[in-house]
UniProtKB/TrEMBL annotation:
This protein's name: M28 family metallopeptidase
Pfam entry (one): Peptidase_M28
Organism encoding this protein: Luteipulveratus flavus
Superkingdom field: Bacteria
Keywords: Hydrolase, Metal-binding, Protease, Signal, Zinc
Residue ranges of every copy of the Peptidase M28 domain listed in the record: 66-273
Record carries keyword Signal: yes
Length: 286
């Protein structure tokens, strides 16, 4: 698969940290920091040649926004989607949760745009708002689709917390509409020598609305408030008996709260999925 540059990915995270610093310390739905995050991501995507849409919806924090970006081309009539939530909690800047998924998906999109690849499917990237209030942005997006739009979406792959400072490598296993994405993610980890485990995220992220709509989903996760076991530390390194992310939903979730090797490996995983799904014969995803 492609090498998505980790230094460019980390540079987006530094910009998201600066946005929080300049706007009262967070990027939560309804805040100036969220609006600046939307402007940052949309600006980069527009400059790269994406067709972007800002979709408005109501949330408990007032009006919020999703950013949706399509790469032009793709004539199969099928859409492959990749997404991450763009908002933070109110307690902090949200750099691992979920600047990491945002930066990984954004840099993959920008690298794809420069690559000269010719997709057969429509490649769509989504940056969701108000995830932290209860998955409002992704739920609104799926609810707004016509039945034809819904059936055109062949896959949704989610990236929420992919650079935890004491990382694990977890692959979602709650894919009631088929395990094709899960199996492609684990095959990629196998190919690059990353040991992995399944996790059941129990609908706790933005793939949940896609599951409910009957769309095949999947995702990867580097761990949150759960504790890393000795067996997991033996497998992945890091600290046994400590949380995967000790700053989960706290003010210390800053640009220091990252494992850059996990960021690199997981961003390259996004790259592998985008490159392969852009031209995938979608009758084979189930
Ligand atoms: N969605 C959760 C949050 O943003 C974290 C999470 C990610 C949980 C992935 C499960 C799987 O706080
Ligand atoms: Ca890389
Ligand atoms: Zn969160
Ligand atoms: Zn999250
Ligand atoms: Zn691969």
């Amino acid at each position: 698969g492609p090498d998505i540059p980790v230094d460019a990915t980390k540079a987006h995270l530094d910009q998201l940290q600066k946005i929080a610093d300049d706007n009262g310390g967070n990027r939560a739905a309804g805040s100036a920091g969220y609006q600046a995050s939307v402007d940052y991501v949309k600006g980069k995507l527009d400059e790269a040649g994406f067709t972007t849409t800002v979709q408005e919806f109501d949330s408990p924090n007032g009006t919020s926004y999703n950013v949706i970006a399509d790469w032009p081309g793709g004539t199969s009539g099928k859409v492959v989607m990749f997404g991450s939530h763009l908002d933070s909690v109110e307690e902090g800047p949200g750099i691992n949760d979920n600047g990491s998924g945002t930066a990984g998906v954004l840099e993959t999109a920008l690298t794809y745009a420069k690559s000269g690849e010719k997709p057969t499917n429509t490649v769509r990237f989504a940056f969701w708002g108000a995830e932290e209030q209860g998955l409002y942005g992704s739920t609104h997006y799926v609810d707004s689709l016509s039945s034809g739009d819904t059936s055109a979406i062949a896959s949704y792959t989610n990236f929420d917390m992919i650079a935890s400072p004491n990382p694990g490598y977890f692959v979602y296993d709650d894919n009631s509409n088929g395990n094709g994405i899960r199996d492609d993610l684990t095959a990629h980890y196998d190919e690059v020598g990353v040991k992995w485990e399944y996790t059941d995220p129990q609908g706790r992220s933005d793939h949940a609305a896609f599951i409910d709509a009957g769309i095949p989903t999947g995702g990867v996760y580097s761990g949150g408030e759960e504790t890393k076991s000795q067996a997991q530390a033996d497998k992945w390194g890091g600290e046994a008996g400590a949380e995967f992310d000790p700053c989960y939903h706290q003010s210390c979730d800053t640009s220091q709260n990252l494992d850059l090797d996990a960021l690199d490996k997981n961003t390259d995983t996004i790259g592998a999925m985008v490159w392969s799904y852009a031209t995938k014969d979608l009758n084979t995803i189930t």
